[in-house]
Automatic annotation (TrEMBL):
SUPFAM superfamilies for the chain: lambda repressor-like DNA-binding domains
TM region(s), chain numbering: none
InterPro entries: Cro/C1-type_HTH, Lambda_DNA-bd_dom_sf, MLTR_LBD
Signal peptide annotation: none
PANTHER family reported in the protein's UniProt record: BLL4672 PROTEIN, BLL4672 PROTEIN-RELATED
Protein name: Helix-turn-helix transcriptional regulator
UniProt domain HTH cro/C1-type: residue ranges: 34-88
Length: 277
């Protein structure tokens, strides 16, 4: 069970190992004599050669010996391991090499953003922080998802609702994809906010209480999902497909503005039926 904040050395070690083991040697045009392999992925010496560092350095990194690679080395490792942009950002966060602004964790909505959420009606909208805590919402979002006012503040968390709330566990038609993408997003937030004990405690609760979350967390996938589509099972109006967009305000970069739009005419009709008469 997770009781501490991020141990960056150990997480960096584990992340490098999992990314290395996922690579296909054939994609690198390695000589055939190197193809008889006892372990998956590339060997450490191959990653070392691709990144231009010593094998011993890779070994020490993967053993979590507390090394802090420079920004140049992190960039070289990201290239050698063919990391996706979100994975690359995660690696920079773990190595403490990404420029950071002062950490002021948002636990309440700023007044201008709270007004904006209300003004976005009739589009369903809500404001969250990096933990997925729901800080503000408009009436359309409450009628679509849940009346958040009926929940105690600790439960006003979109990940907690998806995993733990009995009324919303089966709310998403493609639940596995939604959970997997949310876990990958949460892992990126975890690395970017290593001193956030509340976030670490939340992840520990999810890991202990939900096998699905624990499985995807162990995969160490990293993906910041800024837009996409979700299909919802609404108890009153049936199936609704929504496209979502996630925006980050420049002056409140720890807050996320999420806006839903109907994905088709049938879904728009369903949303219209949710409006008060």
């Amino acid at each position: 069970m997770m009781t501490r904040t991020v141990d960056t050395s150990q997480e960096l070690a584990a992340f490098l190992r999992t990314r290395r083991e996922r690579l296909d040697p054939h994609d690198f045009g390695l000589p055939s004599r190197r193809q008889a392999r006892r372990t998956p992925g590339l060997r450490r010496e191959e990653v070392a050669e691709l990144a231009g560092v010593s094998i011993d350095y890779i070994v020490r990194l993967e053993q979590g010996r507390g090394l802090r690679p420079s920004a140049d080395v992190v960039e070289a490792l990201a290239g050698a391991l063919r990391l996706a942009p979100d994975e690359r950002a995660y690696l920079f966060d773990l190595a403490r090499q990404r420029p950071r602004t002062a950490d002021k964790l948002a636990t309440t909505a700023t007044a201008p953003l709270a007004r904006l959420v209300a003004d976005l009606s009739p589009l369903p909208a809500m404001l969250m922080n990096h933990r997925y805590d729901i800080l503000a919402w408009n009436g359309e979002m409450a009628r679509l998802l849940l009346d958040f006012d009926t929940l105690p503040p600790p439960q006003r968390n979109s990940m907690w609702l998806c995993l733990m709330h009995p009324g919303t566990r089966e709310f998403y038609v493609d639940r596995e994809r939604v959970v997997r993408e949310s876990v990958a997003h949460l892992r990126a937030a975890w690395a970017a906010h290593p001193e956030d004990q509340a976030l670490t405690d939340l992840i520990a609760e999810f890991t202990a209480g939900d096998e699905e979350f624990a499985h995807w967390w162990a995969e160490r996938d990293v993906k910041v999902k800024g837009r996409g589509r979700k299909v919802l099972r609404h108890p009153d109006v049936g199936t609704i497909a929504v496209d979502f967009e996630t925006l980050t305000p420049l002056q409140d970069t720890d807050q996320l503005l999420v806006i839903y739009r109907a994905a088709n005419e049938e879904s728009q009709s369903a949303l219209d039926r949710l409006r008060p008469r």
